[in-house]
Here is the input.
Amino acid sequence: MRRQDKEITDKKVIEVILNNADICRIALLDYDRPYIVPLNYGYADKCIYFHSAPSGKKIELIKNYNKVCFEIEYGAEIISTETPCKWTSKYRSLIGYGTVEIITDSGLKKKGLDFIMAHYGKITDNNYDEKSVEKLVILKLAINEISCKQSGKWE
Here is the structure.
């Protein structure tokens, strides 16, 4: 990382970002160009979980090449001043790499949905409609590598 003064290495802070951000973006390889998708997610045990329709561009790209890059930002805020070139940002972000597995087993799909629901505040009593669960897949991103940075004052 070029700006080592901004690097986050504290695993607890990295967990805060993973557990509290709202959106994860995954970048997929679309032959000779990147394709990026913002997704709701859940995080558990060094894996990120997404729900998806079982078909579409994202699924086809994952089937062709399941290695992805992902990005999560947390607490982004623009800090303005009277001088335009002195504006800055406050944020924490991470970029990582991993491998995506498409989960089709009903029990494992429900477990992935539980992680996603818990991420957004619904921790218990998740009674899923079986027909709805049957119509979706869970994408499980196993994290292989992460780098994190921050800008601005954090407590």
User: Anything to note?
Assistant: Residues 24 and 39 are 5 Å apart (CA to CA). Residues 4-151 form a domain with the Pnp Oxidase; Chain A fold (CATH 2.30.110.10). The chain has a mean pLDDT of 90. The radius of gyration is 17 Å.
